[in-house]
Amino acid sequence: MATAASASPAALRAKTPAAPPAHPGPKSSLAFPWASPGASAPAPAPAPASAPGKLHASLHLGGARSIGTANGAGLHVLHPDVKPLAVPKMSGGAGDQKSILLYHCEEMTDLARQVAARNDDIQLCSISWRKFPDGFPDLFIPNAQNIRGRHVAFLASFSSPGVIFEQLSIIYNLPKLFIASFTLILPFFPTGTSERMEDEGDVATAFTLARSLSHIPISRGGPTSLVIFDIHALQERFYFGDAILPCFESGIPLLKTRLQELPDSDNIAIAFPDDGAWKRFYKQLQHFPMIICNKVREGDQRIVRIKEGDARGRHVVIVDDLVQSGGTLIECQKVLAAHGAAKVSAYVTHGIFPNKSWEKFKHDNGEGPEHALSHFWITDSCPLTVEAVKDRRPFEVLSLADSIASALQI
Question: What is the pLDDT of residue 40?
Answer without folding.
Answer: 46
